[in-house]
Amino acid sequence: MRIGLLTEGGYPYVSGDAGLWCDRLVRGLAQHEFDIYALSRSEHQEDEGWVQLPPQVGRVITAPLWTAQDDGVVYGRRARRRFAESYDELAAALCEGMVGDASGESPTTEADRFANALYGLAELARDEGGLVGALRSETAVRALERACRAPGARQAARAARVPDLLAVAAHLERALRPLSLDWYEDDGLGAVDLCHAASGGPAALPGLLAHHFTGVPLLVTEYGVRLRTHYLAGTESPPAVRTLLAAFHGRLATETYRRAAVVTPGNTHARRWQERCGADRQKLRTVYPGMDAARFTEVGESAACADPDTLVWVGRVEPAKDLISLLHAFAEIRKEEPKTRLRIVGAPTGPEGDAYLGHCRALAAQLFPDEAAGLHAVGDNPVSFEEIGGPEVPTLADAYASGAVTVLSSVVEGFPISLVEAMFCGRATVSTDVGAVVEVIGGTGLVVPPRNPKALAEACVTLLCDPERRERLGAAARARALELFTVDQNITAFHGIYLEIVSCTPVRRVVLDGTGEPLPFAAPAEAHVPGRWTEQHSTRVVARGGPGWAAGPPVSATPPFAATEGATG
Predict the structure, then answer these.
(1) Distance (Å, rounded) from C-alpha 266 to C-alpha 381?
(2) What is the pLDDT of residues 307-340, one digit of tens each?
(3) Rounded to two decimals, what is the model's pTM?
(4) Burial 67-94 (b: 16+ CB within 10 A, else e)
(5) Torsion angle (degrees, nearest 10) of CA 94, 284, 417, 305
(6) Which residue, 147, 190, 207, is CA-closest to 172?
(7) What is the overall mean pLDDT for the chain?
(8) Are 46 and 16 in contact (CB under 8 A)?
């Protein structure tokens, strides 16, 4: 079948989110054809170029989210009225109160109002050629102001001032840029059998429009819930801006889950977020991320560990990882087991990470003065800060192999990739109970509350003093990881979901015979699968869609071309 893979800020660009997962999915499903529709986040990302694409990628179409020049579209009186009506409806859907407030609106009414506004703007963009100028106009700002001042508006929205309204209008213009793209015709997303959004938010918006205009089914995969990411990133905005933008992204998430045929969270933690946003449980299929276990095979099959007195932490150095608590816990561990060492392996992320790493180094030097074996020996700190690729830790597998126990001390975590890697290596783990940690560990490691150095220390001491238990837990962890978290299980799961969705989707093409008459049942379900049964003799295929479809010439499918010839939408 033909899959339209929708990405935002990731694949096929060299840098970005979910690029490795998308590449493994496309390469693993060579029996399908993929068209990639990619939204880029920055000029730098576009300048870095694409990864090498496999032959099953038919074409790549890109569009920037980071910039949008005025399209020069001048609306007539009727188009201006349509825009004002739809944008008024959108603003009202963002400003109106929650259930129990003076508005008295139900969640269903709010969702319908948002959907009507969204698709009304999309239809206007399709008819007139774009929305950029209109979304930047004074009409949009005044619509937001009226909605914020209307009876029943949320209290935080009523406090919005002109700078707040301008900030919200600018954010909505950026978020709604996909509405102005020319991706939704019969030779674009209308020609695919299934849209697969690699994340929620902007990546799923083209899939929503393809479903609205041409009935293409939508599959949404979220390994990190975009709505949660937005909430965490918007804490520094003024209250009015934060309230309105949270309402927009919440409404968009709800509409995405409502229209999607299937939603695949990456873990139960993400699934709970989706259910809270209105996702139907019948549509949810948990599919764990697929990870490459091959590079950890040698370590995992070796029962011996390099140093039974060493703890290892691996990850990105940032405040959310709470290395401060880990260092305080290690101080307690040293009181019980003086020979223990701690290896912190990872690089800082951005300026905040650099500052945090400096703080951690200073704390380690304060808590653990350099120790020397004798009067004439050089002192050594029991805590070391290292990066992958150095002489002591040339590879990631070497980092996990260097210690008896792997530790995770985070206070915020989504899907804990470092824990899965440690499980592939057959290592016993001690983790804080955050995100999807308990789901991933599944009884093969010790879990303690976050921000509790004493509990973390006690769990580590327990495993350091019990080699047999360490070995038993490590073996169980490796078996669990190989069963649930490999690339093969991920690809197999999505192949089955693709077939499930297509088998339940009505055929969106009408097959005509030589005289132009429709042929009932001429496009069976197996027509989605490549093979000799897909060949049509003395027939032509036209797409269901706009008016006059039967009278015009047949719509020819867009011929595949080299990915390097992708167009910019």
Answers:
(1) 39
(2) 899 999 999 999 999 999 999 999 999 999 999 9
(3) 0.83
(4) ebeeeeeebeeebbebbbbbbbbbbbbb
(5) 160
(6) 147
(7) 86
(8) no
